[in-house]
Amino acid sequence: MFFFCFFFRVIFWNVALIIDDYSIIFGYRVSQMTKTYYDIEAVTKLLDEKERDLELAATIGKQLLEKDQQLEEKIEFLEQELVKTNDMSFIDSEQDVILEESSAEYMKASNNEHIFTSKRINEINFETLNEYKRKIEYLEEENDQLRNKADYFEKETADLEFKESSLITNCFKEIEESQEALRHTQNELKNKTNECFNQQEEINSLFGQFGECNMAQHLELHQLFKSANHVQNLCKTHCALKH
């Protein structure tokens, strides 16, 4: 009797540990869900974790069913062993009662745990999915607003880039025109400078020619003056000889 009580206690204790572990994990997931509201990546991550939690719940349920099956097999084995011991009918009867009661309690506890776990999972799933749905709708709306703003800013940026490109093109055009005008002015200035230089050389040549002509005229006038004085002196001498 002590052996059966200890055996069932160990089984219930293992089942309780599994359920407690699942409750702790699920509680951690719920606490993470409450902290996540605006991060779409975190929402996606929690959805993945939620899927893993559901897989974990299915695994736990499968483990419970396997343990239940193992327990039934062990009970069946013990019953067969007890049937073989006909000389311990009283003990067999007592053990049968204990086994039946323990089996009934275990089945009841297992069913209650399954019902509680399934109900809790469904409640959490419903609340979580609704919360995710609200968050996703909000994030989609916000994403649409951001997309509209991005389109607006993209259009504004394109307009500014077009205006900037036009302004740069006009500036380059004006610079080229200014450079062309400057080159034309420089060429005109160069031509005028050459023309002035040629005129200056011509003036210098004329001044040289004028100086030469002036010198020749001066010499000619000097010779004429000397000739006139000589003639005058001859006339005076001739007049003096006549008297």
UniProtKB/TrEMBL annotation:
One of its GO terms (molecular function) is myosin binding. InterPro entries: HAP1_N (IPR006933), Intracell_Traff-Reg (IPR051946). It is found in: Mitochondrion. One of its GO terms (cellular component) is cytoplasmic vesicle. GO terms for biological process: mitochondrion distribution; protein targeting; vesicle transport along microtubule. Residues 61-88, 129-202 form a coiled coil. It holds the Pfam family HAP1_N. Keywords: Coiled coil, Mitochondrion. The keyword Transferase does not apply. Residues 20-237 form the HAP1 N-terminal domain. This is Trafficking kinesin-binding 1 isoform X1.
